[in-house]
Amino acid sequence: MGSLTIRIDDEALIKGLEDRALRSGRTVEEEAAAVLADVIQPGQTDRTALLARMDMFRESLAGRITTPSEDLLRDMRDER
């Protein structure tokens, strides 16, 4: 197994990684490895986690009034 040492001067970044590790129930080292794996191997993303993120995004948009994209495009075209 390889080893990697990363020096991070940004305390906010370290705190964010620690918080993320706490939420996921992993150590900071395990969380950093998971983050790197997600970036390096994006096709390996857990489908369940992706679906959960999509649900959270949908929930964040609940109650918002949205305009269909075709209406926006038509308005932009008409402004020319």
Question: Main traits of this protein?
Answer:
mainly alpha; 80 residues; 4 helices; single chain; elongated; 0% strand
The radius of gyration over CA amounts to 20 Å
Q: What form results from the Cα inertia axes?
A: elongated
| Mean pLDDT figure | 88
Structural class: mainly alpha
Number of helix segments? Answer: 4
* Total DSSP E strands: 0
Helix content: 55-70%
What summary fits the major beta sheet? none
What does this structure look like?
With 80 residues, the chain is mainly alpha-helical. The chain has one domain (11-79). Helix content is 66%, strand content 0%. Helix 1 packs across helix 2. The longest helix is centred in the C-terminal third of the chain and has 15 residues, at 47-61.
Helices and strands, with pairings:
Elements: H1 11-24, H2 28-40, H3 47-61, H4 69-79
Compact overview of the structure:
The chain has 80 residues and is mostly helical.
